[in-house]
Amino acid sequence: FHPGARFEYSTPPVVAQIHPTVLGVAGGEALTVYGEHFWSSPTFSVRVGFEVVTGSTVVSSSMAVCAAPPKAPGNFTVKVSNNGVDYGTAAVLQYLPEVVFSELRPSQASARGGGMVTLFGSGFFSQTVAAHFGEDVVECAVVSEQAAECIVPEGQLGSRQVASADRSSILEIEMLVDPVVQSVNPSMGPSGGTLITLVGSNFHAELTYCELDGTSLVSTIASSTLLLCRSPTRSAGNVAIHVGNNVARVHEQTAAVAYSFIPAMRIQAMRPSTIVSGADDPIEVIGGPFTEHAGLQCKIGVRFSRANWMSSSRVLCATPFLLPGNFSFEVVSAGAEFSDRTSFLQVIPAAQVDSIWPSVIFTSGGTGVLVQGRNFLSSAKYSCHFDDISVVASIRSSRQLQCMAPNRQAGLASFQLSVDGSLQNTTTRNIMYAPCQVDSAHPTAGPQSGGTVVTMVGVFAATAKIYCRYGRSAAVRGDVLSSSAIACASPVHSPGTARFTVLAEGSACPSEVSAFEFYVNERISSVVPDFVVLGSTSAITVVGSNFRPEGDMTCKFGNLISPSAVWVSQSEVRCNLPANLPMGAHT
After folding, report:
1. Using CA atoms, how far apart are residues 317 and 327, in angstroms rounded to an integer?
2. Going along 505-561, which residue ranges are E strands?
3. Considering only CA atoms, which of 321, 579, 278, 262 is closest in space to residue 422?
4. Can you give the pLDDT at residue 505?
5. Which residues contact 282 (CB under 8 A, 6 or more apart)?
6. Burial class (CB in 10 A: 0-12, 13-18, 19+), 86
7. What are 299-347's pLDDT values in tens digits?
8. pTM for this predicted structure
9. Confidence band (pLDDT; 50, 70, 90) for 47?
10. Three-class secondary structure of residue 322 per DSSP
11. DSSP string, 106-136
12. Which residue has the higher pLDDT, 186 or 145?
């Protein structure tokens, strides 16, 4: 009889939890398994996935420890067995990709510690990731799978290693000395927007900052000795601006300078608000309150000019040479921007006058003077100056203006343009004022065939070029008979009343005569008698049509004019024979 082998039944082991639950793919870390019914026997084993881990140790019936094996990224079950064959319940162990550090930003920090830097890399799947700053271990807060934020611990000046937990990734950070501020300019300014220049040492790009009352300011590192900060919006008063090499702003600032916020000066008006490029007339600024001190300046665009303090509400600004354009206009003090930014100065091209027409106008005024030139802007206000008399110009185009000439005594006058009240030397011309006034004309009617000589009485310039225009017909040249009389022949015109205008140098003269009547030509059909004996009769009858009773009627025998003629009807006129009419046939 053989006794056989002994077989023992036992309660299967139970896995309740494990620690840690997340590991890197490299493994090697201690894995603690918690549960029940663990046996301390040679056959006890821990299995991760399908891999049995060697060297497992049972600490107690509820705890066992082993070294986690390397695995690919993923989730794996953790089970235990007392006999090496039967495995009980499982927990899940997650393997994550390897933590890699690729960049540190910024790569500089204050040696005092407390600054914040951002680690960039991969494999950041936990809430924190360990980073070794030299011998100091910092738990960095993970903000994404590729970034974590770390508070830099205090360290010695110079380069310092930043490594991952397994030392597979190593970066460097430079520990820097704190900045020193030597001067500030300006030391005062209005609420918000002033560019403050700090001069000192140990300023570092992406690291050095300005802070006021716990609020970081917009800062620009111009160099290691020059820091630019933009002042915030704040009520008037004295403050301290702090400077430090600390991105996180979590430790005390290392340098401070005094700064004063003062009430902003407002620009209410500028005279003129439009100037011509190259003009050097001062610009009057109305507003305030303006403070008298040596650093008062005007800022036009990006250029500064001298400001003369006149009163608390008035400043005169020198005008630098400016090209055409629109420029912001401010009142500043030692570089501090005191005024608001809503004021603008318009600089326009210098107006050029090529010609004015007519060049001769009448003393009575009212003539439209056409100004031909360049650079006439619709946004500018132009005036024409006839010696010391100014009239507003109307803008017809960028190359044409028109002014109504004022009345003035006869003689040569200086013509000039102004822009917003500023005279333009490039526009000076001369214009002649001449007399021209038509008081009466004779006759005021004539035949449609034209040729009627119309004599006008009035006041005229002896040297003027005179033309007469009848209705829409082309103007005909007239003759200046004297300073009080001119004459024009009527043109061929259709019957009817035509507007009558006298033109001197192209402009219409003021006139008391406004119309000329063209009538149908007279037609002679016969004379009765058509044969006379000299001395036998003193008159003949002319028979025809279209005879008019108006005016002084005469009859013409060849080259001799009858002493008188009497209108009888539209078809009959009685003509007296000239006393010296010779024998023969006469037309």
Report:
1. 14
2. 507-508, 515-519, 523-528, 539-545, 556-557, 560-561
3. 278
4. 67
5. 308, 316, 317, 318, 319
6. exposed
7. 888 888 888 889 888 999 898 888 888 888 888 765 555 555 568 888 8
8. 0.40
9. very high
10. coil
11. SSEEETT---EEEEEEE---SSEEEEEETTE
12. 145
Burial 272-303 (b: 16+ CB within 10 A, else e): bebbbeebeebbebbbbebeeeeebbbbbbee
Q: Do residues 404 and 367 make contact, with C-beta atoms less than 8 angstroms apart?
A: yes
**231 near 249, Cβ under 8 Å?**
no
Residue (of 323, 507, 527, 350) closest to 423 by Cα position: 350
Give the Cα separation of 188 and 222 in Å (integer): 21
Amino acid at 521: N
CA pair distance 389, 43, nearest whole angstrom:
121
The DSSP symbol for 495 reads: S
Q: Count CB neighbours of 540 within 10 A.
A: 20
Tell me which long-range contacts 299-308 makes (C-beta under 8 A, separation of at least 24).
Answer: 299/328, 299/329, 299/330, 299/331, 299/332, 299/337, 300/327, 300/328, 300/329, 300/345, 301/325, 301/327, 301/328, 304/332, 307/331, 308/282
Return the closest-CA partner of residue 491 out of 447, 545, 461.
Answer: 447
Q: How far apart are CA 554 and CA 112, in angstroms?
A: 125
**pLDDT given at position 250:** 40
* CA–CA dist 299, 327 (Å, integer): 9
362-414 per-position pLDDT tens digit: 887 888 889 998 888 887 888 999 988 999 999 999 899 999 989 888 888 88
CA–CA separation, 255 and 243 (whole Å): 5
Instruction: Please tell me the distance from the alpha carbon of residue 3 to that of residue 26, in angstroms, as a whole number.
Output: 50
